[in-house]
Design goal:
This protein has 214 residues and is mainly β. Helices cover 11% and strands 29% of the residues. It contains three helices and 27 strands. The strands form four sheets. Strands 3-6-9-12-15-18-21-24-26-27 form a ten-stranded mixed beta sheet. The termini are far apart. The model has no long low-confidence stretch (mean pLDDT 95).
């Protein structure tokens, strides 16, 4: 679409759509700062990679070194920072920020307004509800990064917050509005501030099943 800027040796796969006013391959700050004014911005970028069949909607910014696998889809105003990897068939909602050095697996559903800081790992098939916030610094601001990992198949409700360093096991469930301050085991269902175990994934699925049958 119109007014798309593509910098550096960026690769974009066939059948992908890039929305208006989107930037692909934006140079990182250190390259912009050290550059001379006469250097073209295109020369400062190492490029990024967008796979086949992707839909990158309008006003996205994708930094150099970022990799989007096949069939990734984004909403509007999404920011993907440098050296982040997004797995195939993942969806990223409007106004979400995926910071530098993040790893997002395949078939992940990231709803609007989610923030993932540097070092975060979100494994395959995770659902992150609107405005989920992950942190990576126990005593901000400090130089020490303590990343969060969310295990495959987990479900996280809207506006949940993850304190730096926690690990969420596979197929866990975190209720909306929870503040996760310690590790969550596989298949656990947690809720509250701070989040505590209230049941299992099976219990959650049973409640969900009764609700959807109504």
């Amino acid at each position: 679409h119109r007014e798309v800027s593509i910098y550096g040796p960026t690769q974009i796969g066939e059948d992908s759509t890039i929305g208006a006013y989107t930037i692909i391959g934006h140079p990182v700050r250190r390259n912009l700062v050290k550059s001379r004014s006469e250097v073209q911005i295109d020369e400062l970028s190492a490029g990024s990679k967008v796979g086949k069949g992707c839909v990158i909607r309008s006003q996205n910014v994708v930094y150099e070194g970022a990799v989007m696998s096949d069939a990734v889809e984004t909403g509007h105003y999404v920011l993907v920072r440098e050296n982040t990897v997004i797995g195939a068939y993942t969806k990223i909602g409007t106004s979400s920020i995926i910071d530098g050095g993040v790893v997002v697996g395949a078939s992940v559903s990231i709803q609007s307004g989610v923030y993932l800081p540097p070092g975060s790992v979100v494994e395959d098939g995770v659902f992150l509800g609107p405005y989920v916030t992950v942190t990576n610094d126990l005593y901000p601001p400090s130089p020490h990064i303590s990343a969060v990992r969310i295990g495959s198949g987990s479900i996280v409700g809207a506006r949940a917050v993850f304190i730096a360093g926690v690990t969420v096991g596979k197929r866990a469930v975190v209720a909306a509005g929870s503040v996760v301050t310690k590790d969550v085991e596989e298949e656990e269902f947690v809720m509250g501030v701070p989040a505590r175990k209230i049941g299992t994934r099976d219990m959650y699925e049973e409640k969900k099943s009764r609700y959807t049958r109504r």
